[in-house]
From TrEMBL:
The keyword Membrane applies. InterPro entries: MFS_trans_sf, MOT2/MFSD5. This is Major facilitator superfamily (MFS) profile domain-containing protein. Pfam families: MFS_5. It comes from Manihot esculenta. It comes from the Eukaryota. GO terms for cellular component: membrane. Keywords: Membrane, Transmembrane, Transmembrane helix. The chain crosses the membrane at residues 6-22, 43-62, 74-93, 128-149, 170-189, 201-220, 285-306, 318-337, 349-369, 390-407, 413-434. The keyword Coiled coil does not apply. One of its GO terms (molecular function) is molybdate ion transmembrane transporter activity.
């Protein structure tokens, strides 16, 4: 393997270690032991849930190809997953608010375990069912757990500032360290032990089962709005009214969709971008490098969030601009660096420059997750938290499905240019959110009054 990859990985490791070891009291939020016990319990469960997710990611496409399916059929399976998340996500989010977030987290575990079991079958219809179940599980993963955490945090009387600790640690562990370890563990199962491409899915099911046991034994239930007179349609209406009537919530949803849409597009494009002529690149090692960069971002975010005087809405403008510049690099290098046209070989100079840019983007991803979680905890009303969070994912899933369907229709530089524009627009919307947040006071009382008024006609 080229020394360049080790230099990038080693450099990121040194920076992350330096940031973590150099933290002072200013970079930490002091909290009592009772909160730390609660936080550590959640982090253990969240890490197990993310391990169950990360173990599957690198081997889904490979497994389908081993079963003899072509690129088009595999693309349809992926579209089914995102389409399922789009169609059923809002429904399961609303059920989580009404029936209980703990119950929804358990449902996530069961649904994803069933999805893993379907991977043992080479039948296309069974695999399609697995993708549908996986899409439902993904919606629960990115809404139910955060909703449970926020509600339980405030129910126990903890300070709102302490949420930042849990958010930043969850991303540092779940989207960084656990992702790297899952990639290495999956590689051992498939390549070293020769257990085949289904083995990571079996391991994922085991981690999910352990996490579910911890949830059932140690978590208490909490709800958004458990009133008996609120049916599913009413919950949809209340969530839609909240988004339409509060510009802050609408802006937050647009920002999230623009960033995550660009992020998922990047996931599909980084491989052909770094090896346009079939260059031999170490995919697993590069993936681990990206996750290390994400850990760097979450470490930076923990320092930013620890400073109460620093507004999340303010520094995220800069993060989005840096993200836009990072994904614009493939476009810039295509004009400034003449491609060699040689097939095979090691990574090109253009690819090396892009790899550094992609690591910068992943660091921005590491900052984005705990920061968007913090803003969601501030702006999204508790009564419909899971429902609204899954509303946000509808445009995201539509966008990803369109990209998947047309991935061969446009040149890579056009796709990256589009993502860069989206991220720049996100920075402008973030600026607007900052202006509104500074000019308005919290509207919790207004929200409660509006919710009651909107619910009356449907309950009559």
């Amino acid at each position: 393997m080229e020394i360049f990859y080790f230099m990038v990985f080693g450099g990121l490791t040194a920076v992350v270690a330096a940031l973590e070891l150099s933290k002072t009291s200013r970079d930490r939020i002091n909290a009592p032991s009772v909160f730390n016990s609660f936080k550590n319990n959640y982090l253990l469960v969240y890490s197990l849930m993310m391990a169950g997710d990360w173990l599957q990611g690198p081997y889904v496409y490979y497994l389908y190809s081993q079963y003899g399916f072509g690129k088009g059929e595999i693309g349809q399976l992926f579209i089914a997953g995102f389409g399922s998340s789009m169609l059923f996500g809002t429904i399961v989010g609303s059920l989580a608010d009404k029936q209980g977030r703990r119950r929804a987290c358990v449902t996530y575990c069961i649904t994803y375990i069933l999805s893993c079991i379907t991977k043992h079958s080479p039948e296309y219809k069974v695999l399609m069912l697995g993708r549908v179940l996986g899409g439902i599980a993904t919606s629960l993963l990115f809404s139910a757990f955060e909703s449970w955490l926020v509600a339980e945090h405030f129910k126990r009387g903890f300070d709102q500032q302490w949420l930042s600790i849990t958010f930043s640690k969850a991303i540092f562990l779940g989207n960084g360290l656990v992702a790297i370890m899952s990639g290495l563990f999956g590689n051992v199962l498939v390549d070293t032990l020769g257990l085949g491409p289904v083995a990571p899915f079996d391991a994922a099911a085991c981690f999910l089962a352990i996490g579910m046991a911890i949830i059932l034994s140690s978590w208490t239930e909490n709800y958004g709005d458990a009133s008996e007179n609120k049916d599913l349609l009413t919950q949809f209406k209340v969530a839609a009214v909240a988004i339409a009537s509060d510009e802050k919530i609408a802006l937050l949803g647009a920002i999230q969709s623009l960033f995550e849409g660009s992020m998922y597009t990047f996931v599909f494009l980084w491989t052909p971008a770094l090896s346009p002529n079939g260059e031999d690149i170490p995919h697993g090692f590069i993936f681990a490098t990206f996750m290390l960069a994400s850990m760097l971002g979450s470490s930076i975010a923990s320092r930013l969030l620890a400073r109460s005087f620093l507004k999340v809405e303010s520094y995220m403008q800069i993060v989005f601009v840096i993200s836009a510049a990072s994904l614009l690099l493939p476009v810039i290098t295509s004009f400034l660096i003449v491609p060699t046209g040689e097939k095979g070989g090691g990574i090109s100079f253009s690819g090396s420059v892009q790899l550094l840019g992609f690591c910068t983007f992943e660091a921005c991803v590491g900052i984005f997750w705990p920061s968007i979680m913090k803003m969601r905890s501030q702006y999204i009303p508790e009564e419909a938290r899971s429902t609204i969070m899954n509303f946000f994912r509808i445009p995201l899933n539509i966008f990803v499905c369109v990209v998947l369907y047309n991935v061969d229709a446009f040149p890579i530089i056009v796709m990256f240019g589009m993502c860069s524009i989206f991220l720049f627009v996100a920075s402008l919307l973030q600026r607007r959110l900052l202006v509104i947040a500074e000019s308005q006071k919290p509207r919790s009382q207004d929200w409660a009054a509006m919710k009651d008024v909107e619910a009356e006609p449907l309950n009559a």
